Amino acid sequence: MEPTDKPIGIFDSGLGGLTVARAIAKELPSESIIYIGDTKRCPYGPRDQAEVRLFVRQVGAWLESRDVKAVVIACNTATAAGLDVLQRSLEVPVMGVIEPGARAAIQATRSRRVGVLATQGTVDSGSYVRAIGMLDAGVRVTQAAAPALVEIVEDELVSGAHLHEDWMSDKAIFDTPAIRAATRAAAAPLLGRGIDTVVLGCTHFPLLAPEVRSALGDGVRIVSSAEETSAELRATLDRRGDLAPAGVDPAYRFATTSDDITEFAVAGSFIFGHPLDSIEHVDLEDLEALTDCVGTGEGE
Ligand code: DGL
Predict the structure, then answer these.
(1) C-alpha to C-alpha distance for 41 and 39, rounded to whole angstroms
(2) How far apart are the first and last CA of the chain?
(3) Distance, CA 145 to ligand 1 centroid (Å)?
(4) Among 104, 139, 186, 202, the one annotated catalytic
(5) Which residues constitute the domain of residue 247?
(6) Residues 288, 238: Cα–Cα separation, whole Å
(7) Looking at residue 296, what is its pLDDT?
(8) Mutate to test the pocket of ligand 1, among 73, 99, 116, 119 (most ligand atoms within 8 A of CB)
(9) Is 75 a catalytic residue?
């Protein structure tokens, strides 16, 4: 198959990466996508970096076996732990979401004080601080770990009852008093520091953007990496001559390690903005068996 005809591989620890997949489908409407959510092992955020690196290698090898032309790690935690490992292991271009998120933040800030709301793993890795510092060493970064928000998003999505009703509406579906309070608590370390831009450093958090915005107040801009990542992906494919020709009908395929495909379909369709028609279940044993196919990626 020619690279122009091959799909783009996208992965996340679960459903949140579909916020990035949605932006990619919008930016590159002729490109086919194969998305895998490692839902059974979600969340990655509280896990040890070495463990997440192993998962990244496994899921990356699975995408490689599907003959993708590029891989997007649509998960900040996985990017922080394993972007370099996967770039060394695979032949195709591999992109993460942290550098694009950092770029979006430094382009938006005027006060040059930026906040990062992310998982514990991403905060502990210091990846955003490094990425922002590489782009503008004068920008001050304050990080806040918000593990509770990942749980809220996953729980609300999988409980799913209200999703049909609000399907693709712009309603803030997570707008309950408890969620508002949890979001305020998570965002509190970012207040009173002159921060004018906050990067949503977790691909689940764009789903909570209205709540984060109200917790931070109107003067703070919220940026996420989805659009910037999509633009970077377009530029990469374009320079390589790998873009699908305009007007081609894309194929969207999905896979999950979850045992509940229906749950993934309902919540995923809501986030992706299209029905998830084609979903396959991937056994964790099959992913684990791929570990040896990709090498360690460490210093190879
Ligand atoms: N999607 C992950 C991220 O962007 C968060 C969820 C998790 O902890 O697995 O960091």
Answers:
(1) 5
(2) 28
(3) 11
(4) 202
(5) 3-97+227-293
(6) 34
(7) 52
(8) 119
(9) yes
Q: What is the pLDDT of residue 299?
A: 47
Task: Determine the residue of 15, 76, 123, 156 to mutate for testing ligand 1's pocket, defined as the one with the most ligand atoms within 8 A of the Cβ atom.
Answer: 76
Q: In total, how many domains does the chain have?
A: 2
Averages of pLDDT over runs of 10 residues in the chain (300 residues) are 93 94 96 97 94 96 97 97 96 97 97 96 96 98 93 77 48 74 95 96 90 93 94 97 95 95 88 90 93 57
Residues enclosing ligand 1, CB less than 6 A?
A: 12-13, 16-17, 42-45, 75-77, 119, 122, 150, 202-204
* Residue at a domain's end among 225, 246, 261: 225
* CB-count burial class (<10 Å; 0-12, 13-18, 19+) for 8: buried
Which atom from ligand 1 is nearest to the alpha carbon of 46? 8
Question: What CATH number has the domain bearing residue 212?
Answer: 3.40.50.1860
Interatomic CA distance for residues 150 and 41, integer angstroms: 13
Question: Which atom of ligand 1 lies at the shortest distance from residue 202's CA?
Answer: 4
Output the six-digit token pair for 125: 């890795």
Neighbours of 172 (CB within 10 A): 17
Q: Judge if 235 and 89 occupy the same domain.
A: yes
Distance from the alpha carbon of residue 46 to the mean position of ligand 1, in angstroms: 9
Whole-angstrom CA distances from 235 to 52, 68, 228, 231, 232 are 28, 17, 11, 6, 5
| Angle subtended at Cα 82 by Cα 114 and Cα 295, rounded to the nearest 5 degrees | 165
Closest Cα to atom 5 of ligand 1: 202
Whether 42 sits among the annotated catalytic residues: the reply is no
